[in-house]
Design a protein that fits this description.
mainly alpha, two-stranded antiparallel ribbon, 5 helices, about 130 residues
Length: about 130
């Protein structure tokens, strides 16, 4: 009986894996659900290394991201004219955006969105938005 049960378990697992592999293109949520179940972890990294330091707490991880990306953009020097740090010399007017508007927009981000130019996936931005 034991060998029969083991054989059936192996066979069922093979069928399950075959179904997962065939549905990757059609149902990515099922695929990622399987991956997350095998990893047994959250989507937010537990350890981040930046500037010779290691962050393990949620707030310190978010701060490490903020420190990294704060060097990418220049703050406006006067008024509402913001100049990209790339040095293009072009100014553009920035409307005032409240923190609540930003948080509302972040909550609407979907997992299927790919990472932007900064390389950060949308789920990470959304999941980290509640850390203060």
């Amino acid at each position: 009986m034991r060998s029969l049960v083991k054989k059936q378990i192996r066979q069922s697992h093979r069928v399950y894996l075959t179904n997962i592999q065939s549905s990757i293109n059609n149902n990515t949520k099922e695929f990622w659900s399987y991956i997350h179940s095998k990893r047994g972890s959250t989507r937010i990294p537990g350890i981040v290394h930046f500037g010779g330091e290691t962050a393990t707490e949620p707030q310190s991880i978010v701060n490490a991201f903020a420190n990294y990306f704060s060097g990418v953009y220049a703050r406006p020097t006067s008024g509402t004219c913001a100049t990209p740090s790339a040095g293009s010399g072009h100014c553009f007017n920035m409307p005032t955006i409240s923190e609540s508007e930003v948080l509302r927009s972040i909550k609407r981000l979907k997992d299927k969105f790919t990472a932007g130019i900064d390389g950060i996936p949308s789920f990470l931005v959304r999941d980290c938005s509640t850390v203060r």
